[in-house]
Model the fold of this input.
Amino acid sequence: MAVTGFEKNALQEYKSDANEVVHLKLVREAKDLEDESVTFHPAMSHQVFGSSENIFGYKGLTVELYYSACRLSTYVNIKYDEMIKSEDFDGVQPDDILRAISKHIPAGFCTNRDTFLALLEQDATFLPFGEIIHSYKRSKGGCTRNFEIYKSSIEVKGFRAYHERLQTFLLWFVDAASYIDVDDGKWTFYLIYEKQQTSYGVTFYRIVGYQTVYKYYAYPQLLRPRISQVLVLPPYQRQGHGAELLEAFYRESWSDNSILDITVEDPSEEYQRLRDFVDVKNCLKLDCYSADNISKGFTSALVKETQAKLKINKKQCRRVYEIIKLKYTTAQTLKAYRLEVKKRLHQPFQNSCKDVGKMEKALTSEEHEAFKISKTEKHKTLEVLYNECVDSYRHILERVASS
Done:
């Protein structure tokens, strides 16, 4: 029997937005379980609940996915006011939420609140994995917080299971996320912890974020590390931790003669801005980026020095060069700057036009007119790209100036 229009409307009442009903927490102490101020929500959920990012079959639904802030012991709890009765809607079944989640998180998570609270107590004995490579502080409102960055490999005892729990956050915050093959020994892991010493003598190390790096081979006998996954967890975002993480990795790499340069795998716009900020700040300390030297243009000497001292690859070096040159650009030199940047932006169009140019002779008058229009559109597109590029450059320079 087909579902009627009235039944379709009724079914809509059992549909929930997964990004709203999934509640994530990093639980520090028992009272956090009831504290909604420490709740955060996914940026996306299609990797768990499908492209619609909806959960069907419940009214008043809350999906609690909680982690202890140190060990990442995991608790899953599903609450709802009402679940659909399949017999009332021609056999329509509710989504199996626990099954959908359990496909993506390691076995051993608990669904019992008391069990989770018992596991939470073990956070007091947790110690970070690997070796510490950097520490720093953040102060706000008279309160100073301490953070440490550690470097680890998968061989460190206990880290494999810990990483399996940690990487599950990627599903909710990184589009097209995939779990890496940790058995490949070329992976290195960098983790940030907040270090908090209590008045009763216990030190807690609570996870803030992490980064994975894969060491690719660079001919003839060097390495080209690629930053792969980077995530700072929502309670710690917009506090400069991503920059600290990247800087710590850079400092370690600068003195390593086996490293040619560093790349980033498919950086998001947000991460590209972070990378630009850190790279510009570092490059401004080099003499080759002085106003006098940068006026000489994008030279091979500049690329070579940047790569040798800061391990920045040629493509990123070009971007940094343009940002810093904008800093020194005046009203008198703006036209030349614009032409230089547009020439670089125009390169992909030029490459594609080489083949089109060969075909132009064979075009009819109508086709030739259409081709002219497409060239006009191309120039409009180029202008938009230039303006977007320069706007982003200005934001980077403003951030560097205020840092």
About this structure: The two ends are 66 Å apart (CA to CA). Residues 365-402 form the longest helix (38 residues). The chain has a mean pLDDT of 92. The chain has three domains: 12-124, 127-327, 334-402.
